[in-house]
């Protein structure tokens, strides 16, 4: 038990040490010897993420949910692994365009919109209030535990009235300190070196304090990690905490939602944006922070489970609030000083958070909420207030006080109903609403002002309805009725089971619906219209920030102003001396003698606006500067013209690329076509060569015999007759060949004439067999005919089909053996087709020649006995059959003859009508 | 002693005409109807001259020519190639393979007889 005086004195002493560190940091910064310009300080300042929530709340969380406290630290670790992707770009954008807060960032991105900046500010303020209340609650309950104003379960006695409540004084004290840290003077960059130094310092203090308590609990109260875990396993109730089963009771969805929430928070919480982006001195520092910050988180979490289990083992379940284990365990062992150290660590965590958060929020309130409203009043626009630095500081100090008092109010309203972690998560879900507009703005050109407004508004409303209002209602300040029965008694509007979505914890549920509404509104409304010139130019500046030089932001700003107008304007907000100094520096950098020589060009206007943006925000700076500038507003077309200079080159090279690809494709096509032509040419050559050969062979005989007969009239009659017979038959062969070549060429080129008539196939086959009867008789062969009883009608060219039949029959006649030869012709009808088979008992065709015989000039059969033929009969027959949609093929076994078969399709209805007319 | 001439061709009518022409000139005539038979008969009979058709079954005239010319025992055999394919490449190919002369079909009987006579007179 410690006396209140001691605790208060130690607390103040600690705050003074913090202030001393901050003061030292500021002094060193003024001397140009910054103590924060190193990556260690940067990484430690990011640890402002670990607040009283981490310090007290994680233990409480672990005591009820086991490893369920982990996602809050897994998220940031994930975020840091992605830092080079998102954070680096955010830092670059913020530095290049002198962005000083999240509200400023979003407002600038969507065309320097006041409305958007204001909305973001309101969301930030409302969202942060529970979080600040959490810190106040932690400090005040820590104080009561230490000083013994609590019952046996370490639950504090509630302050009877507001005036007697120590928490109010904690809030007021913190407000004073925050003003001292962050709002003593005005800076164009909104950077607070002293504050960062102090935050880095407090990060070390809270880590050490927590580790000391952890070691005390683990190795003094118990006998090391093994002892605690062994005892926990022995206790059936506690063993559950150590298995992932308990932790996964929220389901994978719960883990995912929690990790995502923490991931977004570590990027978009106003205080994280402040230390990570605004206070960043050097982009290179991010590199070390990428591993150092997660390492810090790991370290501070090592003893969370041991302390939680230790507390439960020592006090038993349900007796002492687990949120206070860090203090109550040392106290219970009579280690008052240790408990005091733990309290200082917790105080450190809480103050660090409160200071940075309220500074960040107050900057937003001033730049994006109050200034724009003031600027609307005509009286203010006129230079009645020559120096506004005092006013600006006043606004900020007021904002700091206001935010802390609102935090206190929330603490009074809802603080008792929730554990620390649950309060923090409500804030996390609020800042997650910034993610679509921020990330969309950094990577998507299509986002518009209305889209961002709609998204933020939708997300915020859903968040307030599903999380904020229930938290107030559960504390008894609102009628619980709408919680249980939905708004207006509509069941599907129940805030924690919206549209019937049950089975999720309230945070995951709210996150799901709010982000869904947010993203959908942002994207859909953005797509509804083309970005304006102003939006398009800002979109390009943000999305393409890495393409543009850091030192030369593009100017989408046409117009000019005299330095005599701009200097006083800047002086109003930054102070006359500072304004003169920065203008002087600007002039010297451009190689000019002094301020008087500055030319009134767009660059100067841009410079003045950027300086003002640092002090009053981008949107307000634009308004102020435009009041003195003869600006010709740029339309979308003109902005596009400027953008086009760059994008045209890109588009042009893109077009060239496309064209060369098209050319390549065309070349490839031409090459392929050429190959095909060459192939055709080669086929034609082969054909011509074959034809030539076939023509020359009979010609050779004819010429030789003719010459012999001519030269020698005395050749005897027998030879003479034989020779003349050969000449005649070779002439016939020649004629046949010429006819068939022409025939083939006609069919192949599609110039053949087809005279289709109704044919009776039975009659046609009979006729063809009759025509070739003499050939078979000459060979002494028998012809068998197998015909159906009724006529088979078909529409085709009669003469062509006769040609096919004659070809097949004469082939058979040629190949049947001279003794015992036979040929069998059968005609039949099958479903949908007519089939003709011509079989013989000739020598047959070896299997490797079966396909070849249908090629031009390829004759089958044994050469010695091969009958005279042109080698075109079968190819022509096949062409004819295929012309009528049929097929011609051969089956053969060597030594057992061959069967040539062709089928011709008959339309079924045709067949029926023909049959019915029979 | 009468010179021996082998006629190698698969076209019967051409064989008949060549046989008649050569016999009339007083040569002894041998006949082969395809490439393989031609090679066998050349090896067996070692004719003084071969009238060799290019487009023959089983073995083309080119293959026969190559086999004969690469056989040292058959160096005395003259080869007169006959082809219905009159392309320059065919002629060049035949000569490159060692054919002694080349005539395209349809040939003049007078020229053929003269060419045969002169080729045999070179010995």
UniProtKB/TrEMBL annotation, chain A:
Main localization of the protein? Answer: membrane
Q: Please state every residue range assigned to the domain named Histidine kinase.
A: 690-908
Name the coiled-coil region(s).
649-690
Q: Name one Pfam family in it.
A: HisKA
Write down the EC number.
2.7.13.3
Output the superkingdom of the source species: Bacteria
Q: What is this protein called?
A: histidine kinase
Q: Which organism is it from?
A: Aromatoleum diolicum
TrEMBL record, chain B:
- For the modification 4-aspartylphosphate, which residues carry it? 53
Cite the Response regulatory domain residue spans from the record. Answer: 4-120
Keyword Protein biosynthesis assigned: no
Q: Pfam families given for it?
A: Response_reg
Q: Does the keyword Phosphoprotein apply?
A: yes
Q: Which domain of life is it from?
A: Bacteria
Q: Per its UniProt record, what SMART domains does this chain match? A: REC (SM00448)
Q: Which UniProt keywords apply?
A: Phosphoprotein
| PANTHER family, per the entry | RESPONSE REGULATORY DOMAIN-CONTAINING PROTEIN, STRESS RESPONSE REGULATOR PROTEIN 1
Protein name, UniProt field: Response regulator
At the highest ranks, the source species' classification is: Bacteria, Pseudomonadati, Pseudomonadota, Betaproteobacteria, Rhodocyclales
């Amino acid at each position: 038990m410690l006396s209140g005086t001691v605790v208060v004195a130690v607390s103040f002493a600690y705050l003074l040490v913090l202030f001393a560190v901050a003061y030292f940091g500021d002094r060193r910064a003024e001397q140009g010897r910054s103590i924060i310009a190193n990556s260690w300080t940067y990484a430690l300042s990011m640890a402002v993420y670990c607040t009283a929530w981490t310090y007290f709340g994680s233990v409480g969380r672990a005591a009820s949910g086991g490893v369920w406290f982990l996602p809050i630290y897994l998220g940031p670790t994930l975020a840091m692994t992605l830092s080079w992707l998102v954070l680096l770009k955010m830092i670059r954008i913020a530095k290049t365009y002198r962005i000083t807060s999240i509200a400023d960032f979003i407002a600038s991105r969507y065309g320097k919109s006041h409305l958007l900046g204001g909305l973001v500010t309101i969301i930030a303020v409302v969202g942060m209030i529970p979080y600040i209340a959490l810190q106040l609650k932690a400090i005040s309950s820590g104080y009561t535990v230490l000083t013994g104003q609590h019952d046996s379960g370490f639950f504090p006695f509630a302050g009877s009235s507001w005036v007697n409540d120590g928490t109010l004084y904690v809030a007021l004290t913190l407000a004073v300190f925050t003003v001292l840290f962050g709002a003593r003077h005005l800076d164009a960059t909104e950077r607070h070196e002293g504050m960062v130094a102090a935050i880095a310092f407090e990060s070390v203090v809270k880590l050490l304090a927590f580790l000391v308590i952890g070691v005390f609990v683990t190795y003094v109260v118990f006998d090391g990690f093994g002892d605690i875990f062994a005892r926990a396993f022995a206790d059936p109730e506690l063993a559950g905490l150590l298995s992932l089963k308990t932790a996964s009771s929220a389901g994978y969805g719960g883990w995912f939602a929690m990790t995502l929430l923490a991931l977004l928070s570590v990027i978009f919480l106003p205080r994280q944006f402040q230390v990570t982006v605004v206070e960043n001195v050097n982009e290179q520092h991010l590199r070390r922070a990428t591993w150092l910050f997660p390492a810090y988180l790991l370290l501070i979490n090592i003893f969370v489970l041991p302390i939680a289990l230790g507390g439960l083992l020592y006090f038993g379940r349900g007796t002492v609030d687990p949120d206070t284990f860090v203090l109550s365990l040392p106290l219970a062992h009579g280690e008052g000083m240790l408990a005091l150290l733990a309290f200082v660590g917790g105080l450190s965590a809480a103050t660090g958070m409160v200071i940075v958060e309220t500074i960040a929020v107050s900057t937003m309130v001033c730049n994006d909420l109050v200034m724009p409203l003031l600027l609307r009043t005509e009286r203010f626009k006129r230079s009645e207030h020559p120096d506004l630095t005092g006013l600006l500081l006043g606004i900020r100090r007021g904002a700091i006080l206001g935010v802390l008092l609102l935090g206190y109010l929330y603490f009074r309203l809802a603080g008792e109903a929730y554990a620390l972690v649950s309060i923090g998560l409500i804030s996390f879900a609020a800042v997650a609403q910034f993610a679509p507009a921020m990330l969309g703005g950094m990577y998507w050109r299509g986002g518009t002002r209305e889209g961002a407004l709609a998204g933020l508004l939708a997300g915020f409303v859903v968040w307030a309805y599903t999380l904020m209002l229930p938290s107030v209602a559960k504390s008894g300040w609102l009628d619980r009725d709408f919680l249980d029965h939905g708004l207006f008694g509509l069941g599907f509007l129940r805030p924690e089971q919206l549209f019937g979505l049950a089975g999720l914890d309230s945070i995951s549920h709210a996150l799901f619906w709010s982000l869904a509404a947010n993203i959908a509104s942002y994207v859909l409304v953005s797509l509804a219209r083309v970005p304006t010139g102003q939006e398009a130019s800002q979109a390009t500046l943000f999305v393409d920030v890495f393409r543009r030089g850091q030192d030369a932001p593009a100017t989408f700003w046409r117009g000019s102003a005299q330095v005599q107008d701009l200097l006083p304007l800047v002086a109003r907000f930054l102070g006359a001396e500072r304004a003169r100094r920065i203008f002087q520096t600007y002039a010297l950098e451009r190689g000019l003698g002094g301020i008087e020589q500055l030319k009134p060009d767009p660059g100067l206007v841009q410079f003045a606006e950027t300086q003002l943006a640092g002090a009053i925000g981008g949107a307000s700076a634009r308004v102020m500067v435009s009041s003195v500038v003869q600006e010709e507003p740029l339309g979308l077309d003109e902005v596009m013209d400027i953008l086009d200079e760059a994008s045209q080159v890109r588009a042009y090279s893109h077009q060239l690329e496309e064209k060369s690809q098209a050319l390549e494709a065309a070349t490839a096509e031409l090459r392929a076509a050429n190959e095909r032509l060459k192939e055709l040419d080669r086929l034609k050559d082969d054909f011509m060569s074959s034809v030539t050969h076939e023509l020359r062979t009979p010609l050779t005989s004819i010429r030789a015999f003719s010459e012999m007969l001519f030269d020698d009239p005395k050749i005897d009659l027998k030879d003479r007759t034989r020779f003349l017979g050969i000449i005649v038959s070779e002439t016939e062969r020649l004629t046949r060949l010429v006819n068939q070549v022409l025939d083939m060429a006609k069919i192949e080129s599609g110039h053949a004439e087809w005279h289709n008539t109704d044919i009776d196939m039975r009659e046609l086959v009979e006729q063809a067999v009759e025509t070739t009867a003499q050939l078979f008789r000459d060979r002494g062969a028998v012809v068998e005919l197998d015909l159906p009883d009724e006529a088979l009608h078909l529409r085709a060219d009669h003469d062509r089909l006769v040609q096919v039949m004659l070809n097949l029959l004469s082939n058979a006649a040629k190949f049947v053996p001279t003794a015992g030869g036979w040929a069998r012709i059968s005609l039949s009808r099958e479903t949908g087709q007519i089939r003709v088979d011509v079989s013989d008992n000739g020598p047959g065709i070896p299997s490797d020649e079966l396909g070849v015989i249908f090629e031009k000039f390829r004759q089958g059969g044994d050469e010695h006995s091969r009958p005279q033929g042109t080698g075109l009969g079968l190819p022509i027959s096949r062409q004819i059959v295929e012309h009528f949609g049929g097929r011609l093929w051969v089956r053969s076994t060597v030594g057992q003859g061959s069967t040539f078969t062709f089928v011709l399709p008959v339309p079924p209805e045709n067949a029926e009508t023909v049959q019915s007319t029979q | 002693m009468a010179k021996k001439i082998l006629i190698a061709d698969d076209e019967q009518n051409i064989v008949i005409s060549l046989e008649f022409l050569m016999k009339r000139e007083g040569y002894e005539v041998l006949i082969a109807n395809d490439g393989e038979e031609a090679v066998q008969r050349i090896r067996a009979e070692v004719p003084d001259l071969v009238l060799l058709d290019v487009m023959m079954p089983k073995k083309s005239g080119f293959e026969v020519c190559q086999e004969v010319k690469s056989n040292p025992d058959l160096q005395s055999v003259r080869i007169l190639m006959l082809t219905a394919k009159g392309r320059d490449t065919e002629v060049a190919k035949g000569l490159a393979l060692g054919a002694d002369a080349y005539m395209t079909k349809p040939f003049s009987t007078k020229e053929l007889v003269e060419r045969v006579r002169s080729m045999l007179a070179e010995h």
